[in-house]
Amino acid sequence: MFDVTRYLLFVFCLISIWVDSARSVALNETALQALIRLKSETRSKPNDRVFPCKAADFVQRWWFQPALKEAGITDYVWHSNRHTFCSWLAMENASLKEIQELAGHKTIQMSARYAHLSPAHKLAAVERIAKPATPNPPEIAEEPNSHQNSHQSKSLQAKRSKITNLSDS
After folding, report:
1. pLDDT tens for each residue of 93-106
2. Of 11, 61, 65, 151, which residue is most buried, by most CB within 10 angstroms?
3. 150-162 pLDDT tens trace
4. 104 Cβ partners below 8 Å, 6+ apart?
5. Which of 45, 49, 6 is nearest to 25 (CA)?
6. What are the structural domain ranges in the chain?
7. Of 122, 121, 103, which is closest to residue 113 (Cα–Cα)?
């Protein structure tokens, strides 16, 4: 069953990891529209379950395995979708707390284990700290014991001083 106004899917199919607890799953607009379309194509009542199942039938191999084969995907299991979901959230700058709640993890540590960044995303993250030198750098307070200056190499400090002196002339 799902709630169109609150964008929630209610999961009542009990499996061992949820230990007798129903869950609600947040849906984005695309997922909600897909469920609305699915419900409209079936002869179900508004409060019927979207995916009725028994715990033993939870893994839908009858459709999942043929879909993987048709797509040419190998070495992939249903559980990989949870890692993908958490990783995509992380790469869209969701916080670990958001990932934890959306994935239904009990701890943030579990969310951190699931949220993987792609190599391209890692590269983009380190590129954000690569700032080009400006001809007129802002004035930097030169405090002998400042944290920032303690991490700068002598050559970087010399280059900044040289740029500042050139812009003053």
Report:
1. 999 999 999 998 98
2. 11
3. 444 555 555 555 5
4. 18, 23, 25
5. 6
6. 1-57, 59-130, 133-169
7. 103
